Amino acid sequence: METLGPRIKELRLEAKLNKAALARRVGVSDVTISYWESGAIKQIGHERLVALAQALNCPLSRLLEDEGSHASPLYLRRHPPLPWQDGKQRVIELPIELVPGQRWDGDCHLVTPAPGEHFDFLKEGDLVAIAPSDIFRQPGLYLIEDDGILAIRRVTQGPTGELMFQRQDSDELIPYTPCCRLVGKLVAHWRAQPL
Which GO molecular function entries does the Swiss-Prot or TrEMBL record give (predicted)? Predict the structure, then answer.
């Protein structure tokens, strides 16, 4: 897979921007742009990636994927099926520098809430990388199916190892029930920021 640094440089040149112009648009120094392009800085924060995509006038997915793959984000709806279940959707590989602190090495899909759909922890226009999984690996945000409805919940383990679910605006921990199952782990989350 092509690394992120050369892709940033390629997109900057396509946009006919020098490093200083791109740096001003993103809100960093031109030295930082040089470090990103060379790979000297391997971890780029989610907010900076969103700003970088906006400054380069390209979809965030183009920064995250190899040239030629350009997967469009899949729409997430509250009712199944899962967006990636038709078998035609391409998976993406996230460079490790985009998911610091995550222990994930599987396939991911770029997903965004469908128009008119509302999910805890996501706003309209947010982009998330979801790794399909029915296994709890670490605390964090998961896509769950609860009695036939898809939802995003913060998932942790209780003192005896049972899974506990939490909504965005509540401190209440909801215990696992047989009608609830994990269907994916959110491994990265990008929120568009106004320029």
Answer: DNA binding
